[in-house]
Amino acid sequence: MKKILTIIGARPQFIKASPVSKAIRESGEFEEVLVHTGQHYDGNMSQIFFDELEMQPPTYNLEVGSGGHGEQTGEMLKRLEPIITSENPNLVLIYGDTNSTLAGALVAAKINVPVAHIEAGLRSFNRKMPEEINRVVADHLSTILFCPTIAAVKNLKDEGIINNVLNTGDVMYDAALQFAGKAKSKSTILSNLQLDSKEYILVTVHRAENTDDKQKLMNILSSLEFLSKDSAIVFPMHPRTKKMIDAFGLNHLLVNIKVIDPTGFLDMICLENNAKLIITDSGGVQKEAYFHKVPCITLRDETEWLETVLSGWNSLISPLSEDALSKAIQKAKPGKQIDEYGDGNSSKIICRHLKDFF
């Protein structure tokens, strides 16, 4: 039996790994060793996801925690190498574009273990984003590249990567389909927050380019405060965002906004599915908005998920002025069907390709 060592560390990776790990277990062909780097260490952003996503507990938890990019990635490299050497897997499986992704790719490549990258080929073409550096380096170190879209395949071809590049569809769509029913039956967050379906706007903000720039963050919060006069605003707040709001003294802009702690996956699905509009700077939430057929506004100049914009479901704005968000909201509306994300069986397709590889 072949051994796969899977490296994850952040909320979006837990979601992506859930259907893939399930497909791996059900195949009977592989043993999976799960390593959690501890990049997301808050209980609301980590343990609750393993519980709700019905994932086996990680074999290893590195508990790296927060820190600068170099410090965090360096700690992961130091702690991953002896584990990979000891476990001696046939393949290392990485997801997405976090520091955990980069560290896993680097360690495995250095000790000559094949790397498979799920969600390969995505590009924002903004090298100022740490995630862009992570995904580019990971792709160039990977042996097998599982792409979620045709555009991702093209991006890799443009960079000279053509071997073992496979368009499998999006595993996050698999997860959305698998857990939508469970979220509907088990989540009580709407009643807990006294929210009516399609009567509120859901907001998530966590990227450094927005949270660490006082003017941008103030513009975002001022816009939300203005919008709260006409609509309820629900804001699950990332620890980074809370820290910067406190540091900049901007709490007075949250008076009429329903700020809550980061939610579990099922509650988040419920909030997304019932929102009338989603405002975010998250790559994953942009797609989840489409999965639940909710118009989305993305607080960025670019996106890796260009098809969400081209189809009309998503619009990009840079929060450089207070009225930019208000104008975008007036234009937000449902878009067209996107066919690129697959039919909910991307995880099984990936598993079949892994069998073929061995």
Per DSSP E runs of 2 or more residues, the count of β-strands stands at 13
Question: What does the largest sheet look like?
Answer: 7 strands, parallel
**What portion of residues is helical?**
40-55%
Q: Can you tell me the residue ranges where pLDDT is under 50 for at least 5 consecutive residues?
A: none
Strand order of the largest sheet: 3-2-1-4-5-6-7
The CATH architecture of the largest domain can be given as 3-Layer(aba) Sandwich
Any idea how many domains?
Answer: 2
Total DSSP helices: 16
Query: In one word, what is the shape?
Result: globular
Q: Helix-strand pattern, N to C?
A: EHEHEHEHEHEHEHHEHHEHEHEHEHEHH
Secondary structural class: alpha/beta
Task: Work out the radius of gyration.
Answer: 20 Å
The CATH class of the largest domain is Alpha Beta
Task: Assign the CATH superfamily of the largest domain.
Answer: Glycogen Phosphorylase B
Tell me the span between the first and last alpha carbons.
10 Å
Report the portion of residues in β strands. Answer: 15-25%
CATH topology of the largest domain: Rossmann fold
Overall average pLDDT: 92
Structure description:
- This protein has helices spanning 11-27, 47-52, 69-87, 99-110, 130-141, 150-158, 171-186, 189-192, 208-211, 214-227, 239-248, 265-274, 283-291, 306-310, 324-331, 346-357, and strands at 2-8, 30-36, 60-61, 91-95, 115-118, 144-147, 165-167, 200-204, 232-236, 258-260, 277-280, 296-298, 314-316.
- The N and C termini lie close together (10 Å).
- It is of the alpha/beta class.
- The longest helix has 19 residues, at 69-87.
- It has two domains: 2-170 and 342-357, 3-Layer(aba) Sandwich (Rossmann fold); 179-331, Rossmann fold (3-Layer(aba) Sandwich), CATH 3.40.50.2000.
- Strand 4, helix 4 (99-110) and strand 5 (115-118) form a beta-alpha-beta unit.
- The strands form two sheets. A seven-stranded parallel sheet has the order 3-2-1-4-5-6-7, with helices on both faces. Strands 10-9-8-11-12-13 form a six-stranded parallel sheet, with helices on both faces.
- The protein is built from 16 helices and 13 strands.
- The mean pLDDT is 92.
